[in-house]
Task: inverse folding
């Protein structure tokens, strides 16, 4: 493996035909992207003694530096702990669209982190499993697509993924997703606020249980117990919350070589249609070519199709592995309905992990033929998301003329009764919701930027209405007042569907092992592969699929040798 | 306003002085960090305020062109809008200058003292979050 060799400076190769070029990096497996999907795949394959190289566009992040940056930042948003450019937002402070050109009726509001470890640096850490019905939506309800594999087929990998990430949950309640192995850790305690809400809902159709989380409820895997810093987003100060640097480190310890600040810009086929070389460019301007027997794309639901579409060439005029014309299509999120209210008495928000309880009872049912399913979460951060509390409370109360002890008491009263509830709503795959290349804008690597067409269809809009009604039910049961609902659906950060798996090459990009139908030494991992999105946060499912794919990759490599 | 007239007079004096002595042409702020700290204590009805934070907040107000109003407020003349902004700064820990990318204070911002049942995000909990707080 010629890794670490000095990389030649060259201009970006604009050729679109098979190339014969000097190779700077050679490996058995090249993984592009070091988020949870890429890191897990790399770690598993490197542990088998395979030669693994990882490319990551973003830099390595030092947790202490990031935490200090978060503490000192005036604006504490997703980007605040991270280097400039690593966490681009879909919208800037002035409300202008930034990284995406938005061409649809709705804005796609989810973005991601470019860093070693990927977006798991600032994810929430929730890891519910999909429901068995989520894998056969077409068969059960005549909607969307069936997955090419069943829940039962993925179940062992769910358990494996829970052990890898470090899952805390209640093994006695499967929440509709049957399990054959227990959670490796007991559940994270439900907040006092959650318990108050759950008590008010006793006997109703809303049951709030301890949320399964990739967050240590006990010390495990050389990581400490969650200390309740309440800053899971944008950074866990102690790494009690899992992030993919865990498996990047394991991959490197097993011999994988990571190249940070290195972006794959073009995937080249040979005459036989095999993926031959990967053109890359580093942040210092140097560039080169890598060659691997198998290439794994793990660059999330935006960047993976971007790279595939940018790799249009002779033999693949619509983009690499895109004979189905589905690369970039069927973009899904979990549009979020956000609501707020004031409890009749203090319920003590702003304490503990950001979410400790969820309600699963509306994740499936016959209603699903009429409107989208939803997963309800109780926020533990007062009205921080909806109203920028407590800063908004401070400004309001000061403007009312309150001062001294009276002001302090008013802040105490105004914040201690706040509650916020959100629902993540299912979204069906719609081909017109898609990622394409914006050829008018190019980044520092010369790659076209991304254009997104996004809309929320009537099925999901009906689900958002159902979520609002459910939130009102919950608030009413609590005798809460000052109830409000955000009219605009927010992004959940769940980028799904743009390189989907299936059984028919005409209706999918990948087979059930996540191997390209067109280019057999190309695999894709991550939530881009989901045919439908269900209501579960996608990370555990994409992790399970990545572990399953690692077996297929290993087997294919053995056959190639 | 009387104040403006007096400051106008002072400014003219500086011009004359500068022309005589070659001094740089700007007026030093008449409220300093200690003065701002004292003013803040009075407005906030608190004694235990951090002097270093006061100095940073003052820099922010001066950067926003509030020197004149600060002097007036310190002399007892009502400046309700500025008074509110001073309180907001101390409670939120944020500089009044929105171009400042850094907070002046965070965990010790007064809002978290008012919310005595919790602490700022990013600091480990001091209590079990599954129980009601001990007040």
Result:
């Amino acid at each position: 493996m010629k890794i670490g060799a000095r990389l030649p400076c060259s201009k970006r190769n604009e050729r679109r035909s098979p190339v014969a070029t000097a190779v700077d990096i050679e490996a058995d497996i090249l993984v592009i992207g070091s988020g949870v999907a890429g890191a897990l795949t790399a770690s598993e394959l490197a542990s088998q003694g395979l030669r693994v190289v990882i490319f990551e566009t973003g830099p390595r992040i030092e947790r202490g530096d990031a935490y200090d940056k978060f503490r000192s930042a005036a604006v504490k948003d997703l980007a605040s702990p991270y280097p400039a450019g690593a966490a681009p937002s879909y919208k800037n402070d002035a409300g202008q669209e930034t990284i995406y050109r938005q061409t649809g009726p709705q804005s796609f509001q989810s973005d991601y982190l470019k860093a070693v470890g990927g977006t798991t640096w600032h994810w929430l850490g929730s890891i519910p499993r999909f429901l068995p019905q989520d894998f056969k939506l077409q068969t059960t309800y005549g909607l969307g697509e069936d997955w090419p594999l069943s829940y039962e087929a993925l179940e062992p990998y769910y358990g494996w993924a829970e052990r890898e990430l470090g899952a805390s949950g209640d093994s006695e309640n499967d929440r509709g997703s049957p399990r054959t192995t227990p959670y490796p850790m007991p559940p994270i305690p439900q907040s006092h606020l959650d318990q108050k809400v759950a008590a008010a809902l006793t006997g109703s159709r809303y049951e709030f249980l301890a949320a399964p989380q990739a967050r240590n409820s006990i010390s495990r895997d050389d990581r400490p117990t969650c200390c309740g810093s309440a800053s899971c987003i944008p950074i866990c100060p102690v790494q009690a919350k899992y992030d993919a640097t865990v498996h990047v480190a394991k991959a490197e310890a097993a011999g994988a070589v990571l190249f940070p600040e290195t972006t794959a810009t073009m995937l080249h086929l040979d005459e036989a249609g095999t993926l031959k070389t990967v053109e890359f460019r580093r942040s210092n301007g140097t560039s080169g070519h890598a060659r691997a027997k198998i290439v794994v794309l793990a660059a999330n639901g935006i960047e993976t199709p971007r790279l595939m579409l940018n790799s249009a060439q002779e033999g693949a005029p619509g983009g690499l592995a895109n004979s189905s014309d589905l690369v970039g299509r069927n973009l899904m999120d979990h549009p979020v309905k956000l609501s707020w209210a004031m409890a009749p008495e203090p319920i003590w928000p702003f304490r503990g992990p950001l979410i400790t309880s969820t309600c699963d009872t509306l994740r499936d049912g016959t209603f699903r033929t009429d409107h989208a399913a939803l997963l309800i979460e109780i926020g533990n951060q007062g009205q921080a998301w909806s109203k920028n509390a407590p800063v908004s409370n401070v400004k309001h109360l000061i403007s009312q003329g309150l001062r001294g002890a009276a002001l302090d008491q008013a802040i105490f009263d105004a914040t201690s009764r706040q509650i916020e509830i959100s629902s993540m709503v299912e979204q069906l795959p719609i081909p017109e919701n898609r990622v394409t290349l914006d050829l008018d804008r190019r980044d520092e690597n010369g790659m076209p930027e991304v254009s997104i067409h996004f809309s929320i269809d009537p099925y999901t809009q009906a689900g958002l209405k159902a979520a609002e009604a459910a939130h009102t039910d919950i608030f009413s049961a609590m005798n809460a007042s000052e109830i409000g609902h955000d009219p605009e659906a927010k992004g959940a950060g769940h980028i799904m569907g743009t390189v989907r798996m299936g059984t028919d090459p005409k209706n999918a990009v990948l087979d059930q092992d996540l191997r390209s139908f067109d280019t057999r030494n190309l695999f894709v991992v991550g939530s881009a592969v989901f045919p439908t999105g269900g209501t579960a946060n996608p990370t555990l499912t994409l992790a399970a699929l990545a572990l399953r794919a690692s077996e297929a990759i290993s087997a294919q490599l053995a056959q190639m040798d | 306003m009387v104040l403006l007239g007096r400051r106008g007079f002072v400014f003219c004096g500086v011009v004359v002085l500068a022309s005589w002595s070659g001094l740089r042409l700007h007026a030093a702020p008449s409220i300093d960090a200690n003065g701002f700290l004292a003013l803040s204590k009075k407005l906030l009805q608190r004694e235990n305020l951090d002097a270093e934070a006061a100095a940073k907040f003052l820099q922010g107000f001066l950067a926003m062109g509030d020197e004149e109003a600060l002097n007036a407020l310190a002399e007892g003349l009502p400046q309700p809008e500025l008074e509110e902004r001073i309180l907001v700064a101390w409670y939120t820990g944020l500089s009044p200058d929105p171009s400042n990318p850094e907070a002046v204070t965070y965990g010790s911002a007064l809002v978290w003292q008012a919310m005595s049942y919790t602490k700022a995000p990013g600091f480990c909990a001091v209590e079990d979050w599954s129980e009601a707080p001990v007040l």
Summary: The radius of gyration of chain B is 19 Å. Residues 1-26 of chain B have pLDDT under 50 and may be disordered.
